[in-house]
Design a protein that fits this description.
Blueprint lengths: L4 E5 L3 H12 L3 E5 L3 H20 L5 H9 L1 E4 L10 E4 L5 H14 L5 E4 L6 H5 L8 E6 L8 E6 L5 H13 L3 E4 L8 H17 L4 H11 L6 H8 L1 H15 L8 H8 L12 E3 L5 E4 L4
Parallel strand pairs: 1-2, 1-4, 2-3, 4-5, 5-6, 7-8
Antiparallel strand pairs: 6-7, 9-10
Length: 294
């Protein structure tokens, strides 16, 4: 099935990346943002990322302009009525997701698939906010979207097979590898990855140097990035929220969030995006010395 038009609800880091990826695959994309300023900023961020690809000779100017010409950013849900797939990329909070899907349901074409980019929330609960739960599915991208090759496809117990098949076809269109996940907290990647990163935070809390933890996993387990660096890169606030979701979802102590991680987040330091997490970062985002546990 050829998907020609999609809508993305939310034009932040993930939403902009989702839109860019779809446009580079030749799909027409409409981003929906809450106001004109944020809509304009989303387009600027996409152009900035495409310019970087041109500078690195990954695409040429013609390809960049072709992608930009396929993307528009609007502020009204009326603009999603022609989309064949609507992808939600709003903050990772169930109440926000459910409210967003209830609104999408009112405006989207009756045949449209409604997909959530959630990293671990219940697709069944999100779908229950709509009149078409059989057309609701999880479609979890990874950051940075244009670079990472995986998408997790998460049907609920109500999602119909045609919706699953269409999203698998769409994954191929946008040059992603889909993996099928069950609708339980964390799906596959985060259920395995987040506890490992959380345990690395425990090691630092117990006195380990973040550099030693990172080097141990890079050299001993052949990981491309150490778990503490990865935590800062993902965002400690996002990491903590996902960890708390796993803990609440399974009620299992193995998913307990590290107290040190909670304290760093409470201090307003979220990692690379704020310039400070377990490590310090300069204005260009380059990692400096650890500021926690050294």
């Amino acid at each position: 099935m050829d998907i020609k038009r999609i809508a993305v609800i939310g034009g932040g880091l993930m939403g902009a990346g989702i839109a860019q990826n779809a446009a580079e695959s030749g799909r027409r994309v409409t981003i929906i943002e809450v106001n004109e300023d944020r809509a304009a900023q989303s387009l600027k961020n996409i152009e900035k990322q495409l310019n970087r690809k041109v500078e690195k000779s990954r695409i040429d100017e013609q390809a960049k302009q072709k992608a930009l010409d396929l993307i528009e950013a609007k502020t009204s849900m009326d603009e999603i009525k022609d989309a064949e797939i609507v992808i939600e990329a709003v903050p990772e909070e169930l109440s926000i997701k459910k409210d967003t899907f209830a609104k999408i349901d009112q405006y989207a074409n009756e045949n449209a698939i409604l997909a959530s980019n959630t990293s671990g929330l219940s697709i069944a609960a999100i779908g229950a906010a709509t009149s078409r739960p059989e057309k609701v599915i999880g479609f979890h991208y990874f950051y940075p979207v244009p670079v990472m090759g995986l998408v997790e496809v998460i049907p609920s117990i109500i999602t119909d097979q045609s919706t699953i098949d269409t999203m698998y076809s769409f994954a191929e269109i946008i040059d992603k590898k889909p993996v099928l996940c069950q609708d339980y907290p964390g799906f596959i990647v985060n259920r395995l990855l987040i506890p490992m990163v959380n345990e690395a935070a425990y090691l630092v809390m117990e006195g380990a140097d973040p550099r030693d933890v990172d080097n141990a996993m890079k050299l001993g387990a052949n990981h491309r990035m150490g778990p503490i660096t990865l935590a800062d890169f993902v965002g400690l606030d996002v990491l903590l929220a996902t960890m708390e979701g796993l803990y609440q979802g399974f009620q299992d102590s193995k998913y307990r969030p590290c107290p040190l991680l909670k304290k760093i987040v409470e201090s307003g330091n979220y990692g690379k995006k704020t310039g400070r997490g377990f490590y310090q970062y300069d204005n260009d985002g380059n990692q400096l010395e650890p500021v926690i546990g050294k």
